[in-house]
Please model this.
Amino acid sequence: MEQTTPYDDDRAAYTRHALARLVLADHATDVADAAAGLVGTRNDADTGPGGRAGQARQLVELAEQVLASAVVHEVERGSSWAEIGHYLGIGANEARERFAPALKGWDTAFEEPYRLDTTGRKRIPQLPTAAYDPASACRRLDLWAFLHLTGVNDRNAVSAALLTTDGGPDA
Model:
């Protein structure tokens, strides 16, 4: 698929490591937001029997997605499987096998950032949204961090340290 997208230049400005870090940050906000939904008690009566357990299950699924994103980020930044496995409490081979599908999907998405739908007319991104459209992700995640991270008075808390393809941090 040779056609370009409006996001190609934005994506090309960042290293794969930076894009993986953006995806990790994006997935982490999903977990934080889902966990926050379990804090308040006022709407418990509106939740059917077992509903909070369902929310907690969804939180675990989101956390698994964060873990896979963190591993992709660690591989992109050059961590070895032994280092990753050490922090996960498993062996290097087990870590490599467990996260092989996530890494394969990540690598494949860079080869083909989108596919066409069944009609052949609509592009469907294969990269996670934060990596596919990093400019928008940086704006959204910087705002999220500014609003949610207590004591962090930095309007570029996410984007400021991302490595760009010109070798410097995104300023």
Remarks:
- The two ends are 32 Å apart (CA to CA).
- The CA atoms of residues 161 and 169 lie 5 Å apart.
